[in-house]
Amino acid sequence: MLLPSLLIVFITVQASSATINLSIFRRGGRFTDHKPCNLTHLSEILAATEQRYLTTYRGVDENRLVRRWRPTTGDDDHLLQAIGGDGSWYAALEVGSPPQELQFDLDMLGPDFYTVMTTSAEGSRYNTFASVTFDEDGSFDHAMCKRASDLFELSTSVRLSLPICTPPKASSLTLRSSGSVIGLGPPGFLTRLSGLNILDQLHTQGFITDTISSVTILDAETGVLSLGGTIAKDAEEAKIRAGIELQHFGQAEASPEWVQARVVEGMGLFDSTSVEKQFKWTKTQGPPGWWTTLMPGVWINGAKVMRNQPVLLDIQSPFILAPSEAARQFYAAIGGSYRLPAPHDMFFAIPCLNKVNIAFEMAGWNFPVMSAETTRFDSLHGPPGGPLSLGKLEDGTGYCVGVVVETRMGESSEWADSGLKRTWVLGEPFFRGLGVVFDHEKGRIGLRSY
Ligand SMILES: *[C@@H]1O[C@H](CO)[C@@H](O)[C@H](O)[C@H]1NC(C)=O
Ligand SMILES: *[C@@H]1O[C@H](CO)[C@@H](O)[C@H](O)[C@H]1NC(C)=O
Asked: Taking every annotated instance into account, which residue ranges of this chain make up the domain Peptidase A1 (predicted)?
């Protein structure tokens, strides 16, 4: 009887400290490729990206600044705004019995977890009638959203509450796509639905110990969202293994067992017990509600060219947005670069073949960014000019368009209370090559290089 009881202990320990890993994808595939840039198209995406940051403002709560939803005219459409079309990163989750696969757009600007049903045939729609485990009690979570729950297949079956939001029939919002949202924003002032967000639900039910979420981009269109933990250990192991295999390629002694032993040796320095030591941590700064912090330095080719830049982390931005003065300083430090003429003067051209070393200093550490290709596939199919580039400026030139783009948000009166005047947005290009953890309970961000 020893074995079964040991097994039970083992299973309990696993269950209480498990990390739930979800695959994430970029809808519509990779953002950049070998084709020359269409600047009109890029400008439209830039405008749409910026527009998402206009949904909240800096308001006062008692005597501190916090982030709040901007009132909307008529129906609250902020709940629908997080459901993107092309280009959004989403997690595919199995919901209901029999399981249906639903796409949950990642929302780093709000904490709520919900699904939206419109009358449109577009999007990924939850069919509640087809699920025998679907449950609703008729109460409301929000003027537009009913309280409901169903089983989710997350390595084990978990019942989660998933409010169902339906725009009023008379509203034009009902013509938008159906879809679902997994809010990864810090809980608090931006919570709109009375139910718990996904991390708190998993924590309350004992599936995860720590209310942390972590995003790891694997290549230009896939990645992993981990809830309750990270994939730091696997990523580190894969990196060490690849290094050893490359170094000893074709050598007789490099049998799989030999390589494995070297990997184990290499992992000796990795502290697998604590996320504390695996990541460098920085406290969030600025009005609570978004993942904002301070970037104490921007380094280009070994020189510190800027200090103390406020930043917002958001994987749904396909660019790195730099406020006007910062964008100017950034490109001034890159030889041969120049600003494109209006109307595309938010973009800068860089020589495609220049090797530029860029590091963002955060949490007391210089993290190389936009320098290494994440995969061989990316270096083959990505744009000329590598991760610092959005693609060739035009055919037959040696110039590429830089992935750091000037944003003027915060400069017009419409943005006066947005609190974003000097703020960078560190989007998807920043996440490549890094492990990023969001600690929802302690209000801090952890980073490590892969
Ligand atoms: C460039 O993008 C615009 C706007 O998205 C589009 O209308 C146009 O057809 C595109 N041009 C080319 C050459 O693809
Ligand atoms: C998720 O990843 C972590 C870290 O690599 C691993 O320890 C864990 O077993 C994974 N969990 C699942 C359910 O795959």
From this structure: 89-448
